[in-house]
Amino acid sequence: MKTESIEITCRDNIKLSAIRHLPENASRGVVIICSALGVPKRFYNDFSTFLSGHGYTVVSFDYRGIGASTDNGLRGGNILMQDWGQLDMDAVMKTAIHWDMGSVFLVGHSAGGQLFGLSPWSEHLKGVILAPASSANANLYPFPARFLFYLMWHLFIPLLAFKRDQFPARKIGLASLDAPSGVMKQWSKWARNPDYLFSPDSGLDTSRYAQLKMPILAYGFSDDTYASEKAIRHLLSQFRSSEIQFHFMDVKKMDQRNVGHFGFFKEKMKSSLWQQALEWLDSHNRHAKSPEKTIAN
Questions:
Q1: Exposure string over 61-70, b if 16+ CB within 10 A, otherwise e
Q2: Which residues contact 283 (CB under 8 A, 6 or more apart)?
Q3: Cα separation of 115 and 145, whole Å?
Q4: Are 15 and 9 in contact (CB under 8 A)?
Q5: 15-22 and 2-9: which strand pairing?
């Protein structure tokens, strides 16, 4: 297997830092990993290595204003969350499809699973895994998380983002990296609407979500405070034409102490959830070997 650092250029000429994991032999397909807000691309390296070990080319990347994609002359206050879907994911999907390495799939983590439908290139995806991803509105969460999220989206984020280019997400424990303040302001604005970015007040054309015809494998975990079952189901309800397989898992019944919002991508999931995701990818990939042969490799 080979790992290489690459740059992907968006249609507005902004360059994104990306990592491409290549399999030893000919690629059987491509998996794009779209990260959570404030999470660097390197966080997904173990999962990427696992998939590339089973024949997939895997690409992860930092959104504009995040991690290694910050040296582009943009001010954080001028970067919007919608840019991550309309420009960044758009460029990565277009690039991956033009590699001509087989069917292209997408793994969306949190924001990564919310925004990909803003790009017309999403219509070319052969399937999506959400691990996990949800809509954001305080009423979609149980108490006391409902109260805390209400304060975060209505008060704390607007105050801390005011007249800043960088939002101190790392300092306040919200993310592992600081984020552009423009992204945070738009995120909190969307979250104040009952239908999140799908609300008419967002000003976005989200009609494509209902038109996407693809298989979706979605995960949720009972100990995930960021993605409640109700919030996940709200996001899934936007994909009206897709074939959805949703697993909401009671962590107490799993052979794991905790999973939360980030545990799916930890190596401890290699023999369970990762294996399940691999079998799902193979079952929807016309370039794949049978799942039995793939797993035995």
A1: bbbbbbbbbb
A2: 291
A3: 23
A4: yes
A5: antiparallel
Cβ count near 195 (within 10 Å):
16
**Residue-range domain boundaries for the chain:** 2-136+206-296
Report in angstroms the alpha-carbon separations of 132 from 23, 233, 270: 26, 11, 16
pLDDT digit string (tens) for 44-76?
Answer: 999 999 999 999 999 999 999 999 999 888 999
The continuous run of DSSP H or E covering 58 comes out as strand 57-61
Q: In what helix (H) or strand (E) does residue 21 lie, and over which residues does it extend?
A: strand 15-22
pLDDT digits (tens, 9 = 90+) for 29-52: 999 999 999 999 999 999 999 999
Left (φ > 0), alpha (ψ -120 to 50) or beta: where does 84 sit?
A: alpha
CA pair distance 139, 191, nearest whole angstrom: 10
Which segments of 53-130 does DSSP mark as H helices, in order?
81-83, 90-98, 111-115
Query: Per CATH, which fold does 2-136+206-296 belong to?
Result: Rossmann fold (3.40.50)
User: Which DSSP state fits 95?
Assistant: H
Burial class (CB in 10 A: 0-12, 13-18, 19+), 252: exposed
For residue 50, the tally of other CB atoms under 10 A from its CB is: 20
